Amino acid sequence: MRYALIGDELALYLRILQKKVTTARKIYLMRFWTSSTMSCMLLFAFLKLPAQEKYELNSGWQCRNVDGINATGQQISVPGYALTGWTPATVPGTVLTTLLNNKQVPDPLYGMNNEKIPDIYHTGRKHYTYWFVKDFSENAPTGDAQVWLHFRGVNDGCDIFLNGHRLTKDTHYGAYLRQAYNITPWLAKNGQNRLAVIVYPPQFPGNPNGGQGGDGTIAKNVGPQYTAGWDWIQPMRDRNTGIWDKVTIERTGAIRIKDPHIITRVPGVRQAQGPQSPAIIQVAAGLENATAKSITGTLRYKIAGETVSKQVTLAPHSTTTVQMPDLFLKQPVLWWPAGYGKQHLYSLQLEFLNKGKEDDKQAVEVGIREIQTYWNNHTRSREVAVNGQKIFIKGGNWITSDAMFRFSKERYDAEVRFHRDMNLNLIRIWGGSLTERPEFFEACDKYGLLVFQDFWISGDCNGRWQDPQKKDDQWTRRRYPDNHSLFLESVADQVKLIRNYPSLAFWCGGNEITPPADIFAAMKDTIIPSLDGTRYFFDYSNSDSMSYNSIGGNGDGPYGIQPIAHFWNERTFPFNSEVGSVGAGDYESLARFLPTENLVPPDPQTGKTDAVWNYHKYIPYNNAIDPYGKTNDLREWANKAQLVNYDQYRALMEGFSAHMWDWYTGVIIWKTQNPWTALRGQMYDYYLDPNACLYGTRKGATPLHVMYNPTDGMVMAVNNTFRYARDLMLELKTYDMQGRDSLLTQLFVEAGPATIQKFMSVKPMLDKLSAQQGIFFVLRLLNTDQQVVDENLYWLPDANGNYSGLQQLATANVSVKAVKAGTDSIRVTISNPAGGPVAFFNRISLVDAQHQQRILPVFYDDNYVSVLPGEQKTITITGAAISTAPGAEIEVYGHNVKRQYIRF
């Protein structure tokens, strides 16, 4: 039933509104209700919600290539202009994303499809120059109210038009530079508006000749360099041209709050638990007066039950930065990196009151923490502390979430969660990409990952080395980009965008090189100190300001397969910003992007690989698979590759941890994720399916962890926490290939906070026991309740370095039970009966019942697990996908466990 809102009924509704909405909103609603009707249910539902002050223009866009369009932007942006022949557009998104979504190009992530897509270097820039149009409803406000249009990222240039009016005085350039326009004067009287944007590709797309950044000229722009190709990705054919980040409409009063700045000071050395001394909160904010009159009002903020305010007078058409009085917050709950404490976040409500009415407001999540750095004279590298406590950095290098800039809050959350699950505490954003989006930092705040943010310079393109694939010489490349002022303007803007996130820990001039001298000086001496002033600035990613290079070479690496002993015994750079190994997925992962005819393993005799594997940047496993037995079967090869993956990354993290504070203050793996379907450097594939690299890293980076040096046989524990670990029983056992166990020893041990504690060498015993077929070596720490605090299982080779016993390992007849533990969690228990062999290296997956395809993403608290004879292990699977996957099953298979599917 529908009712006209007239007379006494309208008066009643307006009295209700007086308690719920501002004057500007009441005027808008009154106009709406007096000219139309609606159902009572919809009315009351609407009354319960505040009017939307900010919303995103993320659907209903249309686009068309400029070729054949003779109209001007003024004409196209008139709502009456016919969009005949235009196609649906993806915004936020790139031109290539729109073409893919309209099935005009094949998926560039699959097989060799990327070669079928025209490259901008060969077609010319016009081929990827597009108009984007969006019709939207927004009434012109009354009184002093204002409406703003925001673009958070356009690559690379654009002209913007609204309702026949050009908003951009000059063409806007800068992939990283935000834009804001007051569109109040240009809104249509009838509320029906049209936005038209022409987007231009980078002026220098570069020749994608196979070099790092192609011929290097992509770096002449102020934009992402990887789009011309790198050693882990093929070129993006449109160079990521498009409205790649959010477009929003914002309503305010006369005063708009801009770029608030929140600083937290945490003096002294703090503990993660217990009472806290006060912390200091410092707040500043920009205020813009959009009117032609002077306005006096109050800027105030609320946090943790405290309110701080300040009266402000703003001149007409002015912008002013206001510094608020400091707040001394008693008993603060602090924010800590993952593994050290909780990630508590406060909500800070900032608002400007004009004659008692709210003109604008912003909510900022605040993590109270302070990050310090010191020079460690012993290691000769940078040491990091949070809230006064030193943190051993265990990090991963990150490119970007998606090569085509298809970003989402959900994907960011999943990827950052994977890093937390690996027991890492830092993510480095590599300098050939971008400043990561606010949604990424929100996830890092949530999961406790510190962020090391490079700016957009890379030594490969910017002249550090001689390179025959580059068009220009080193002297010329050293001056890239062409527009230094645009680079600096972009730096300043991006600092303001992300500076309030507690996870953001460091700035860095660039990847393996500083920007040109004038840019570098302005960033380091002026922009970063004045706009932030709280974070250490590294000159570049492997500079002496981070890690003194006494070895020679580039200051990072190596990359690729290393002997396990290498990670323990070969001393590398004291804070290594890039070191890593292989990362091929299992068969299910490979089959997602390799055509059937290319699902073949490297030749077991020659090591030669398929051309599509090479196209997807495969790093050879060399002879690492051979000790497990040569094979021509891809599924078997990929499963053996997971054994190598696990062993490599466990050894990497254990080897660095074993020399914590002696050789090293930190390590950052190159790399932990791929924004493309590459066959290297990843703990999970592009489709968010984890491989054994993730769980090997997780094991090796466990905060309180018992481990074994394969060279001298030393058993030791690393305590990467702030707490003393006492009364722990160390238990050392071996199991042969038949499952017979032998207790080597057990004794009570302890380990102090942030230390390594060595216990004993068991090498002679292990060498003797493993000589014939190899053995399983199991190390455990148990608490006084005899509960396992940490467990670590190694599979040791025979005297010849082969895993001959594993090649003949008998089948383990396990039983598997799965139960729903909640709407978004499942518990899987694997039981291995006594009297048989170790149930070795079991992969657990959540799959759909009909096709047995993995459901992604979900999260396993462990995987690739081994179950000892007479014991059981329980794995918990969590994730939102569980609640939306009825009829799913659990798939379990292992090295000597047959594949089975279990309903729950």
TrEMBL record:
Residues 61-244 form the Beta-mannosidase-like galactose-binding domain. Keywords: Glycosidase, Hydrolase. Residues 277-369 form the Glycoside hydrolase family 2 immunoglobulin-like beta-sandwich domain. One of its GO terms (biological process) is carbohydrate metabolic process. Residues 382-536 form the Glycoside hydrolase family 2 catalytic domain. Residues 792-897 form the Exo-beta-D-glucosaminidase Ig-fold domain. Signal peptide: none annotated. It holds the Pfam family Glyco_hydro_2. GO terms for molecular function: hydrolase activity, hydrolyzing O-glycosyl compounds. InterPro entries: Beta-gal/glucu_dom_sf, Beta-mannosidase-like_N2, EBDG/EBM, Galactose-bd-like_sf, GH, Glyco_hydro_2_cat, Ig-like_fold, Ig-like_GH2. Belongs to the glycosyl hydrolase 2 family. This is Glycosyl hydrolase family 2. It comes from Chitinophaga polysaccharea.
